[in-house]
Records
---
Amino acid sequence: MDATARNVLPMLPALAALAETGQTLAAADLLQMPQPTVSRMLGRLGRELGVDVVERHGRGLRLTRAGEALAPHAAAAVAAATAGIEAVQAQESGARGRIALAFQSTLGERVVPALVKAFLQEHPGASVDLIQTSRPRCLAALADGTAEIALISPLEEASGMRQWRLHTEPLVLVVPTGHRLSTRARVSFEEAAEETFICMKRGYGMRTLLEDLAQASGVTPTIGFEGDDLATLRGLVSAGLGVSLAPRDPHGATGCVEVPLTNPEAVRHIGACWLDRRPSTLAGAFQELLRRRGRRLTEIGLRPLGG
C-alpha cells in the first residue's frame, strides 16, 4: 500500500456518506460527526489526491466527476471494513445469557424487531427480555437495573447516562381526508393552532414532542382526546374528531392524510441510552451492534412497507 492510499483510507467514509445521502448535513448525521469536520475531511481528501472530489453547490457540497468516480470504491472499502468487523464479532457469537431491553411503544412494530433480529443472528446463544412501556418508565427501568439498554425518543441527556442517536425522523400533521389542510403540500404547525388535537397521554415521548413543538411555535393546543398508541390516535383522526402529530405510518393511514410540517423542530430523534458504567458482556455486545449497524437497521425498519 503506497502513502497516498494510507492517507486517503480514513477519509473514504466521508465521501461514501455524502454519495449515499446527497447532503453534507445528512452525511455528518450518518457518521455522527460535526458537519464542518466532514467538509474539512472531504477537502483534505481532494488535496491528497490532487483533484477536488467535491464542489460548492448552493449552501452545501456535491460530488465532482472525480468524486463520483471514487465514490463506489469508497463505499466498497467501507463495506469491506464492516464485513471484517462482523467476522470478528461472529467469533464472539458463543456469548450466552439474557439481556433486558426497554423501549417505547411507538418503536415496537418495526425498529425493535430489526435490532433484536440482528443481535440474535450475531449471538444465537443469547436471549432478549423486552419491556414495552412509556419513556419515563424506560428510563426508570435503566435506573433500577430492570433494563440494561433503552430505546427512546426524544433522547435523554443526563449525568451518568450515555446515548447513541440512531435516526432523525420527520413528524407530520395527520388530518382527516377532506380536511381543509389535507391538500396542502406542507403546512406550518401554527396553521393548525385552532384545531382540536388528538395525542398520546402524558409520559409518552410523542406527547413531549407535541408540547415542545407547540411551545416553540407559540401555540397552546386544544387537547380533545388522549390515547396509548398511535393506531388509536389515527383511528380517531380518520373519524374526523381532530388532528394529530405523529411520525409517518408505514402502512399508510386509512381515512387520514399526512401533511409534512415546515417547522424545523418537527422531528423526533430516535436513539438508545444506557447507564455510564461497565456493561455486562451481552449489553456491551448490543451497544457495539448499535454503533456498527444501529442507524442502518433503524432506517430500514422505518421505511414505508413495500418501499
Note: The radius of gyration is 22 Å.
---
Amino acid sequence: MYIIQMVERSDELIVDNIWLKSHLDDLDLVVIDGRGAVAYGSGHIKNALPLSLDDVISISENGANLVLEGAAAENPFGKLGIDESKKVVVYGENFDPSAARIAWTLLYNGHNNTSLLGIAFSFIRRGGTLPIVRDLPKPVVTNFISRPNDSLRADERMIKEKLNDDATVIIDSRTPLEHTQARIPGSLLHNWENGIGDDGKMIKSGEDLLNEFNAFGIAKDKEIICYCHSGTRASHKYFQFKHAGFKNVRCYDGSIIDWAQRRNPIR
C-alpha cells in the first residue's frame, strides 16, 4: 500500500531550511525557485520548479507592472502543480525581492498556504544544507483556482482616499535617492533593504523588524500600504510588516509608475 506523506501545515510566512529539508520529498509540497531560468539551470534545490518574476506580472497600458489574477494566474500556477492541497515554498536570493513578489502573488490569488524560505539560495549552496541538483522535475498539472484577496492590494483610488488618513501609513520601499527624486506625497521612506537579515537571511526576525518600525513611529494598529517603483520591492516590504505582526498590510499594485502615469502629484 502506497502512503502519501502529507505536509505539516503551518501559518508561518517564513520557513527555514531545516523545515524544508524534512519535508522536501512530501508529495503535497511545491517548491518554487524565483531566481530566473539561467540561475535555475546552473543548479537548484531538489524538486524545485522555476518561476520568474516576468511570469507573475502583466504590463498595463500605462506601463505599470500589475499582479496576475483570474485565468492569467491559474495557467502558470496550475502548470506547476499548485492547488488547494499544496503547501508552496518560494526561495531566491536575499539581494533580490523577486521571490517575495512571487509569494505575494500566490497569497493575493488566495493561496494562503504560501511561505518564503528564510535563507538565500547562495548561502544554502555554500553551506550544503539542502541537496542541489540540475534536473528538471515534471509536475502533475492541477486545477489552480484564483480567488483574489483584495485586502492585500491597493490601487490609485485607495491611495487617494488614504493620503490624509491618520490611521494609514504609506511606505516608500525604495532607496533614499529615489524617495528624494519623486514620491507619493506624505509617504514615509523605509528602504526594503533595511529588512534584509544578516548571514544570508531573506528577512530580519519579527522582533527586530517590529523594534525598527516602532523606532520610525509606525504602530501595529496602523494600516500599511507599501509601494516602490513597480511593486516588487513593496512585496518584500509586505512580508516584513506581516512578519513583524502587522495585521492590515497592502501592496500598491503598479506603485509609483502607475501613480505618476495617472498624473497624480509627486513630491
Note: The CA atoms of residues 124 and 130 lie 6 Å apart.
---
Amino acid sequence: MFGAISTSLQRLLHMDNPLYVILQFIWDLLVFLVKATYFTAETIYYSLLPNYLRKMKNVSGQVVLITGGGGGVGRLLALNFAKQNARVVVWDINPEAIKTTMDLLARNGYTCKGYVVDISDRDQVYERAAQTINEIVKAFLPQMMQNNRGHIVTVGSVTGMLGTYGCSDYSATKFACVGFHESLLTDLKTHGYDGIHMTLICPYYINTGMFSGVRPRMFPMLHPQYVADRILEAIQKNEVWCVLPHTIRVLTPLKCLLPAKVCWELMSRVIRGPESMMMFQGRGRVPAG
C-alpha cells in the first residue's frame, strides 16, 4: 500500500558520505527546534481559545461508520453525529442493540444504516464493508488515500497506555489498538496523506456497566454522554490524541520518567488501582435498551 524507501532517503540513513549526513542532521535538528517552538505555541493558543471562536470541522453529509454502535458510548455517538447531519452507519454484533439505536435516532427525527457485524470475523467484515460502500460510503482507506481525505478514529483506553490489574487480556488488546493507530498515522503522514486525519481516544473507566463493581479512588467513572460529546469535539477539532479526563494525560508519561519502584508506589498506594479493580464483578452482555 505504501511505497519503498527512495534512494535519496537511503543516503540519509547510511554513512556513505559522512559529511553530508552530519550536515543534514544538523539542519534537520534546527528545523525541528523551530517547528517544535511553533507547534508548542500553537497548542497553547488553541488550548486557551474557546470553542465558539475556533473553526470546527463540519461533518454534515459525511459518512460516519461506528463499530459497536448498538449500545453505550457508540449509541450516543450515533445520535451526536446524526444531530450534526452526518450519514451514520452502525455496526454491532447484537441485532437488538442495532434496532434500539436506529429507533433512538428515529424518535429524534434522524435515520441511520445498521448492520450485524462480528468484527472478529474477517469475511463478515469485508462483506459488510462492501455492502456499505455500494450503498453510501464508497470509501475506506484506499479511497481515503486516493482522495487524501477522511478521518479515522480509534477508541483505545487508558488501559492501553498503563497496564491494569485484572485486565491482562483487555489491556493487551488496547495496547494493540494504540500501536496500530500510531503506526498507521506514521505511514500516512510519511507518504504525504495529510488530508486524512486520525484521532486516538483513550478514556478512563466509563460508567456503562463494563467495569461493574469497580470503585476508583482518585477519579470518578466517566459518564457515557460526556465521553460521546468529547469524542465528537475531538473529531471536529482534529485532535490527534484525546485522553479522558484530561488530568489522566498528565500521569501517563510518569511511567517513563519516574523510577519503576516510584511508579508502583504511585499506582498501588496513592491511586490504589489494583484494589479498586479487585471489586470488579465482571461484565455481562450490553443491554439492547
Note: The beta strands are 63-67, 87-92, 112-116, 150-155, 196-203, 241-244.
---
Amino acid sequence: MMHYMNEFLAKSPFDLYELNLFHLVARRSSFTKAGQEAGLTQSAITRQIRGMEDRLGITLFERTTRHVKLTRAGARLFEKSDALLAEVNGTIRELQRDFELVPQTIRVGISRSIGFAYLPGFFFAFRRKFPGVQIQLAQEPSRTLLQNVEQNELDVALLSPPPHLPRGLKITHRFNDDFTIIAPPQLQLPRKGKQIDLIKTGKLLMTQRWISIDRECNTGKRMHHWLAKNDLRIEPAMELDNFDVIVNLVSLGMGVSLVPHRVLPIYFNRRAVQKISLKEKFSRELVVVVRKNRKQAEYLTNFVENILF
C-alpha cells in the first residue's frame, strides 16, 4: 500500500495548487487575469498549466491571441474537479472553525439589486447575539453569487432567485419585497381632488424618461413583464444594477422608476421623491441560499435564522 502511494505521488500529473490555478484560468478565460488573482506573473501561471498538460499528455486550453478557451478534455476536468475543490475548501474551513485556528467568519453575498437599506435587518439581530463572529460581505450579480456559494467561496447568499436553482444549493428562507413607482418632486401629477388620478397618471408616466434596473437580471426580467402587463410598455432611457443609485437619480429629476419600498427610508431626509401607488403592486421574491449536504456551523445557522425582513 505504501509503495502504491509513493508511486502515485511521484507520478501524479498535478496537485491541488495546480488544479486551483487551472480553475482560475478557466473562470477568467485569461492567463493574465488568473495570474493577477493568484499573485503570479502571466508567464509563471502559463508554465504551471503547460506542465499539467505535459504530464497529462492532454491539451487543456485552446490559446489564441484573443482568448483562452477550454478544450473538451479541459471542460471535462473542470466539471469533474469543481466539486472536489469545493469539498476540500469546505473541509479546510471546518477544521479551522472547529479547532479555532482562525476567527469565526461568515462569508455573505448580497445581490447588487438589494439596496443598503436592507443591511441593518440582515445583520443587526445577529451582531447583537454574536458580536465575536466576523462578517465578510460581497455584493455581486446573482449569477456570480450562486456560483460562489456552490464553489464554497461564500457561506450564504441573499438574492432574487433564478427560475432554476443549481442542484447543489437550497433555499432556506423566502421574503416578499414590494415595489412602488417614484417620480421627481417637481413632476405635477394629475389629481381628482386630493387623490392622484391613476388613469391620467399612468398616461403621464408613459411620457417620462424611465430609469430601470438592468432588465437582464432576475428582478429586471420580472419587472419588465409586470410593467407590460399593466400597459406601461417602456423603453428605459437608462439601465443600472443598483436601486440606491436609481433613487438618487430620480430625486435629481433624471426620470421616474419602480423601486423597492425598503430602499426609500434612508433617502427621505436628503433626497425627496414622490411615491405613486398603482392598483396592482409589483413584488419580487428574495431568498436565502446555502449549499446542500454541508454541516453548517452553529453561528451560520443562527445568522440565517436571525435575518429580519
Note: The radius of gyration is 25 Å.
